[in-house]
Sequence to fold (405 residues):
Amino acid sequence: MKKPVIFYGYLIVLACAGIQAVGVGAYVTFGVFFKSLIAEFDWSRAILSGAHSSTFLIAGIVGILVGRLTDRFGPRALMSVAGFFCGFALLLMSRINAPWQLYLFYSLFFGIGLSAVDVIALSTTARWFVLRRGVMTGIVKMGTGSGQLIMPLAASLLIAGLGWRTAYVILGGTAMVLLISIAQLLRRDPAHMGLLPDSGTRSEVPGIALPEVGASFREALADRQFWTIFFTNLAACFALLSVMLHIVPHATDIGIPSTAAAGLLSTIGGVSMVGRFVIGNAIDRIGNRNCMILCFILLIMVLLWLQLAKNLWMLYLFAAVYGFTHGGFFTVISPIVAEYFGLRSHGLLFGVAVFAGTVGGFFGPIFGGYIFDMTASYRVAFWGCICTAAIGLGLILSLKPPKPE
Fold:
């Protein structure tokens, strides 16, 4: 058997990392636009939080369908359509004047585009790599971190120099071109290119897919382990997404300049790349469950620290530790589904697991915005995140070790 000069799986990893960088990076910039939208329209934080959370929820709902279609037809055409929706939605955001437009253009249209970003990138990576699935997933998720590092700062500079409407035009046009272009590199699995996972070795039956082992969708739904993973991801994303949306407004509320506050998101994004790579490597050594336990412990500790953080250095220390845990959480979820339930229905099962996260990501930011509107403070909201993270830790501790393949 002969290896190609460069294994195409590495190009798949780079493409999926690019999808993560552009798609998730564009999503997290909403927190940077937050104050501009409030100043322009005098909308409440609950309205804006609701739009942001609805985007995440719609992405999760549509992501289940995307997972099923990816299992059957592959990722290239689906990701092209998703890239169009992402870019078009951001272009339309430059024209909004009413809340219904915010919810239609951002929540619905951008949510449809965002639905494919995690499901396609991570499910495709899981099919191309088995022995090195953890580290390759970590590299793909480093793309998310790079997007979180670069795009909030870029959006902040564009808003300061050109205004928020022009900033959305540039962001939307760039996202559309990049996502559609990258999508053309995707292939469903190595078997359809006459390759085997991990090594690039030529298979003896080019073009014929090897049978994918694992639980069927119905078998997984009947397994308590799947629902433990489901609600663990829900709890994690409740806390994670609430913080991601509200940390910049919280920082400016306590007197941090807006540019320095936007830098918190970039710090989270930058350090999350370290978390994704470290946790990705750790997955292949100590297992997904132990990595998730570690992430929950760190998350609880750093949220307690946030209650004490009153100045810039304390907030940046929070952002660094939080960024590590954030990267770790979003790296481990795809491999843990593959580890416990195999690849037979991985796209669909991962789509359902992502939906769980979007439910948590829907209610968490709304909860934070509502509590702020009621109390003029995020203190109670952050305590709610601590309690939710503690529930998630209890759930993952109850997860039994997976059956050996």
